[in-house]
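Researcher: Structure for this, please.
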Amino acid sequence: MGGEKACVSCGVVQPFDQFYRRKDNGALTGECKSCKVARSRRYYRENTEAHNAVVKKRYDNFGRFQRYGITKELYDKTLQEQGGVCALCASAEPGGKGTWHIDHAHPGTHKTGIRTRDGGRAFRGILCHDCNVNLGAYEKLIRDAGIEKLQRYLDRVKIE
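Model: Predicted structure, token format:
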């Protein structure tokens, strides 16, 4: 669809493809892409803390649960069943940025836990930052080297 339109911010007449489309009705926005990006950057620079707080709150309340196919209720119930501590090391502190990690099985690893809608991940529990990072590295090592090779390597030297 060809055509041109004047931007309400800069007044420059530009082709339609230089304007975003609204999500609700598909109509072209009044502001060109360049002006929209500049305005967004300016707003972010002037309101960084407020913007980051809104994004974090939205992610903490919705995004992280949707990402792993669980509800806040399941998260809270699981943490309570774990005694409010990490499922692996029993630490009472989440570490990292202060948020507990939602552990999930990756394709090609363990298939235990609650299946999610997309079928690609399984919720296993809630971990502290260190256990989550280390478990991910351990699973990659097992996938790449194999558990038998890893065990043989560890058995090579016995420390008394």
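Researcher: Any notable elements?
Model: Strands lie at 4-6, 13-15, 19-21, 28-32, 101-105, 114-115, 122-127. The chain has a mean pLDDT of 86.
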